[in-house]
Amino acid sequence: MEQNCIMVINIILDANMVMLQALEEYNQSEEPSSNNEETSGDGFNPSKAIGFQFPPATFSYTSRDAILYALGVGVSTSQTDHLKFLFELNDEFCVLPSYGVIPAQIASMGLFGSSIPGLEDIDVTKILHGEQYLELYRPLPSSGTLTSVATILDILDKGSGAVIVVGIETFDESKQLVAYNQFITFLVGAGHFGGKRNSDKIKQSYKTPSRAPDASVKQITTVDQAAIYRLSGDHNPLHIDPSFAAMGGFSQPILHGLCSFGYATRHVLKQYAGNDVSKFKAIKVRFSKPVLPGQTIQTNMWKQENRILIQCKVVETGDVVLSDGYIELTDVASVTTSPAEVGYLYSRNSSESYILKSEMIFNEMGKQMAQSPDLVGKVNGVFLYNITAGNKVAGQWTVVAKAPSGQVYKGEPKSGKADCTVTMADEDFFQLVTGSLNPQQAFMAGKLKVKGNIMLLQKAGKLFEQYAKL
To answer: Which residues are marked as active site?
Structure first.
């Protein structure tokens, strides 16, 4: 028993040392294989392994497991609609779509054994998780028993290593297909066996555009993120033990790649599907670099009809951690975020940050006010707008509507006090300015809160009426 533990520890440590180098090799390995190279020995014979089917693997879970997973990928009580993911008695309680990788991951663990024909001599210290695809055919039940069947679909020769493509079908208790996963692993040093370098069995990836993203979400991971995520099944000490991380060349334990995968899923689901899990269809990503717990994940999104192209970066370093990715939705909620406005973040105290629609209105009004001194002089007042999100102040703007020219800037008044202070939720403010929400009704319903000179606010309405051109 003790010898087995020591062997596992050594395997993990060796794997840590090659991880970063292998990631770079995998992401750059586009050279074709030469058929003149010598093939591998009998212990590595891809032709024998292709088509091999693993024994069925069952996975049972409860609402508690689904909630623990949600916490592991960044759901927080600081978010407005957290109850649907964190409270099993909530009427809208549901399971995050990305949880669909968990039963499949367990089914694919047979790849690390020695019973697969043609892969008997596989070196588990050189296996790297390169890409991941997940497709759901129906929302995951809040609890149940799932059965997954994994098959080796193909093995490719990338020169510097071999790419092993494993497809996994997951069925519910009534034998209905619930999910399909594709795990693509990179076996460092196993290339040059004379195999093909491409396969039509691999789910396609998409490059992200060079233009600014259509939407962007930043979220700070907690220092305990990996410690929480590992409780969903990935117990590699690399993600929890500082001594393992140090011997592997990391300053601290790193975050699981599939944890970042979960963050990306949540960000797109929130931005383009209103957190409606029934609108999720599929996700594909390539793992590029690791994230350290406590760092900030930024998910950039480019909308192409129902396909949202994604790229995730670490804000603190600029490193791309998920690349060539996309999420397919069955339906995309209408959004009005302008590419030019990407980057304004709300709530410094919140772990999650979204772009405020109000930003566009104030930006446009500021540009136009300088060109209309007559109207500015008629208003003759200073206004402070507190825009909220998640019941917290997410942004502040000061509107100085006084002769000789007006000003609009972020923050509180630079001198003196505001004549009138307005507090509104971001969405309510947007609807008010665009004419979808009646001011009187908003005031009576408590959506529009005003302190100071209310009569002056009526004059300010003309500024938005004329200059908030979206």
So the answer is: 234, 239, 254, 257
